[in-house]
């Protein structure tokens, strides 16, 4: 019986069912004499514990490499990819915890043997079976559940790999049996210790030591060499290197906490691996790092996982790291300065430069602009044009302007990229560290889309102004205008068409610049200013040691009094919040410029094309030659323009009621529709 409990079969206790079927327990042969059915049932129940013990022990030996191929050394990649042998630090820790349970079981077998040999349980020369049943009573529940646990792991090796194995153990903890729950909590604690080691390495040092890919934070450059990894940072792609794999996040850890963990480690890793550190404080203070490590070690030593405590500690660490980043790497002034630069040039907030740039484009030979052959337009020429446009403007002495450049791309990413020169022309900015912490390449692409739209709109506005000058200064056109006052309204057609087109462009330009760009820009700057003021208050006094640039936040100060001088709802905690706020700001600009609606974008592009044809027609007409033919062409352009504008007006009116492509009724459309139809002119026109 004792040998069977140790997992060794024999003549009395044999595997059942017999081969070739897979055995699931030990049983006494049916032809074995001298046993009562009750005795046989009790002995088989005890022997089943030995079968579970052997199966679990074999599983543990398999994980430790104590199988037939235990002399072979395999690489980590081969171990991870093997279908027969599971690998990983989480599984290794779980096996160690299970082994402790088996050690206690084996100890109970030895103690029973000692009592039998010492005749402590001897009753008249007979050892009652009830004594053995009582000695192993708790294992009737524990070992079958451990056996089911390893079966689940083996049958679903992908589902329960790495951090995912914690979800399985948590499910096993949900039981009303105290003995079983105690064992499962020990297994869960072992898995949590591994998880805390990953979290501590990531949060404190910004290092991802995860050779098996078990943690919920992944390094996409794991297979690259150090030189290629360095290039990832120099190309402003730090935010793409480390990602959050939500499928590995344990169920009891909220996604917000996981995202905070990702942010903190990514921030420290980014600064550490940056090719050009900002200053001597670019290394996170050792004093604060030691304090963070102490917090996490205290959590990992707790026998029971506490979600609230983990959230609190992660928030404290995030606040400390955010404060350090804000003060020594990316201050609010740098962010606001960068945003103002983008507003001046990407969003055409610099009026004199915008006008000069449009004039330079208009000076290009028409034959070259109308050509579809890209080689006629060179990037070098476009960048020279950009420099000439800055002469005599505020951009000439702006150092940030030197980082802007034009680039001719093979394929247009926006519908307005090819309006200026006939080929896709993109306006780009060379972002550097540490500003690339909050400005991503996707953000710069969005800025380029908005610039293409705005410069096309401003160019159309400029051409309509030139048309007015041409009409007013041309003697014959002026004579036609005076003649039309006598009742011949046909002479007024060029003036009327030009006025309606100018009204549309003026409304659209004013809406974009005043209602959309300026209001959203001021809102974002205000939030950053509030955040900067908050972090300024957190700066240490002059008596603080220079080696500790920030005062660490401790758990006892987790519920600080609210700052009565600032709106907490507007404050951005760190550059990750700034990045998200900046991304939201760009999305608002795209929606406000109607660039997220393909229907609206195509309609505006078509309207601008029609206006361009109208302007070219009038600029080449002296007001007398081919008079009626030119008026017919003007009337045709006017009809096409009205169709496009009225279609846009009806579309916007419908979107304002239903939401359309915008995901809900946008408020900014109220302002645009009010500008267009303040006198009900469009409403009457459409009817």
Explain this structure:
By secondary structure, the protein is mainly alpha-helical. The chain has 3 domains: 1-65 and 86-161, no CATH class; 178-329, no CATH class; 334-349 and 433-478 and 490-534 and 571-678, no CATH class. It has 25 helices and 6 strands. It has helices spanning 2-5, 37-63, 76-81, 89-117, 129-135, 139-155, 164-173, 178-205, 226-234, 238-241, 255-273, 286-300, 307-328, 332-345, 351-362, 366-370, 379-390, 441-473, 475-484, 493-537, 575-592, 598-619, 627-658, 668-676, 681-686; strands at 14-16, 25-27, 217-219, 242-244, 404-408, 425-429. The protein has a two-stranded antiparallel ribbon with strand order 1-2. A hairpin with an 8-residue loop joins strand 1 (14-16) and strand 2. Helix 14 runs antiparallel to helix 20 (493-537) and helix 15 (351-362) packs across helix 17 (379-390). Mean pLDDT is 77; it is low at 67-84, 367-375, 481-487, 540-550 and 556-569.
Task: Record keyword descriptors for this entry.
3% strand; mainly alpha; 687 residues
- Count of spatially separate domains: 3
Structural class: mainly alpha
Please work out how many helical segments DSSP would assign. Answer: 25
Q: For the largest beta sheet, what order do the strands appear in spatially?
A: 1-2
Q: Summarize model confidence as the mean pLDDT.
A: 77
Beta percentage is under 5%
Instruction: Characterize the biggest β-sheet.
Output: 2 strands, antiparallel
Ends: how far apart?
A: 98 Å
Low-pLDDT stretches: 67-84, 367-375, 481-487, 540-550, 556-569
Task: Please tell me how large the radius of gyration is.
Answer: 38 Å
General form: elongated
Q: Give the tally of β-strands.
A: 6
Fraction of residues in helices? 55-70%
GO molecular function, one term: microtubule minus-end binding
Protein name: Spindle pole body component
Domain Gamma tubulin complex component protein N-terminal: 1-330
Biased composition (Low complexity): 540-555
